[in-house]
TrEMBL record, chains A, B:
InterPro entries: NUDIX_hydrolase-like_dom_sf, NUDIX_hydrolase_dom, WH-like_DNA-bd_sf, WH_DNA-bd_sf, WHD_NrtR
Lineage of origin: Bacteria, Pseudomonadati, Bacteroidota, Chitinophagia, Chitinophagales
Domain Nudix hydrolase, chain residue ranges per copy: 9-141
Protein name: ADP-ribose pyrophosphatase YjhB, NUDIX family
Top-level taxonomic group: Bacteria
PROSITE patterns named in the record: NUDIX
Length: 239, 239
DNA sequence: GCAAAAGTGTTAAACTTACACCCATGC
DNA sequence: GCATGGGTGTAAGTTTAACACTTTTGC
């Protein structure tokens, strides 16, 4: 039972699995550690939780430092607590998944940060249990994106349906019928058609769309309405 | 960035949201704290993580102590780390959801444990942020049970389709058409029909079924095949 | 004009839903 | 024999999936 005085106290950290999409494929943001141990090895972006912040606060702070961006999509993934996961000292780490619009991302100057985008399928070896974290994040992304529109977080403010399709195809490593894909996405009513077209990737050009943020927030959990939404309150389900 | 020596070290605990089903409605197992602070107040079952165990180990140990049972369905729910969540000393807690067959459960003797099953909808006030944990666990259970057959974990080895339907109806606080419910469950091929009937709740009697454990493990994530299962590898997705 | 990508139309198949109906049995 | 819950049948409505077809425009 709980007896406070006798208990061990541990280090408590956060690590962020940061996904981006460059228009072609999914990317993962990694840094080269600037200090020992494992200096020079590749690692997730992370840091220790400070005295007056929660793990969520710490992860947001780390992301803000790295990207200069606020309001990034972020959710708790899993907590890793194997006694030997950190070779220096026992450390528990809460892993977070973050989705960012790669075009809005600007690398901030920081002596310790040397972040690089890697393809999600070909990245260097990672320290500690960071590969486990990345693998789990990839699984959860695929799972969740099949049910909810969170991949929209990865696109710029203006995007086309074919670009969105390219993103889905990259996440699921498959192809979709463009007609059916477009109708399915549009049927969610989450997108607003804009007046102008992207003419870079075709002669005809594809209309730009933007996310209807209001509907997005309200309908996030109803997206592919797998269950009559009278049953699952759409407001607040599983972070 | 990470500099180990300067960091605060924190207490690290687990708390278990233990769900059971008594044939009528969903229950939640709570204990009355046997020590200060908040002695006598109701609380989730929990404990501190020891030096040589992970949070998962700790949660399994706590459950084993309480119920005498091994191999209980358990999954990480969320980590709670608000700086002021524990009034005594800053403590980070990993919450776990556990599903147990209430009939297999036997209260173990333990000076500190006074566990009681409460209706999931009418339970006493809880200490710290335990209500938040319970609410989140309920949401996630409803979410996940709509997609995967995990409610089977709550039933005894032998059960009838109407009993399973009662369980689903209790979780979603609704009613289902019995014909459609039975066909949908059976279409998963996760159940094996037994030779004998339960005659307690009807004159005709309802056939007993048991879980086909092999199919259950293989098809857990494919259950209500919301996405063509060629897309979501069914083997390992989201704990 | 033609190639290439965007987008629409169409249809068969599959699945869902509601509800009527039959079944087995204890009283 | 009839009330009760278990279980099957069935048809209308909806959704999905495959793919043919039309549109637009740069070259």
């Amino acid at each position: 039972m709980k007896r406070y005085s006798l208990q061990t106290r541990l280090l408590f950290a956060v690590d962020c699995i940061i996904f981006g999409f460059d228009g072609q494929e999914m990317k993962l943001l990694l840094i080269q550690r600037g200090f020992e141990p494992c200096k020079g090895k590749w690692s997730l972006v992370g840091g220790f939780v400070q005295e007056n912040e929660s793990a969520e606060d710490a992860a947001a702070r780390v992301l803000k430092n790295l990207t200069g961006l606020d309001g990034i999509y972020m959710e708790q993934l899993h907590t890793f607590s194997a006694p030997d996961r950190d070779s220096v000292e026992r450390t528990v780490s809460v892993a977070f998944t973050a989705l960012i619009d790669i075009q809005r991302y600007k690398e901030q100057l920081h002596e310790d940060f040397h972040p690089v985008w890697f393809s999600i399928n070909r990245h260097p070896e990672l320290i500690f249990d960071h590969k486990k974290m990345v693998d789990l994040a990839k699984e959860k992304l695929r799972y969740k994106a099949a049910l909810h529109p969170l991949l929209l977080e990865l696109l710029p403010d203006k995007f086309t349906i074919p670009q969105l399709q390219q993103l889905y195809e990259s996440v699921y490593n498959t192809t979709f019928d463009k007609g059916n894909f477009s109708r399915k996405i549009l049927s969610t009513k989450l997108l607003v058609k804009l007046a102008d077209k992207d003419k870079l990737s075709s002669k005809k050009g594809a209309f730009y769309y933007k996310v209807d943020r209001k509907r997005y927030n309200v309908n996030f959990y109803a997206f592919l309405n797998f269950v009559p939404d009278t049953l699952l309150q759409r407001s607040a389900i599983v972070r």
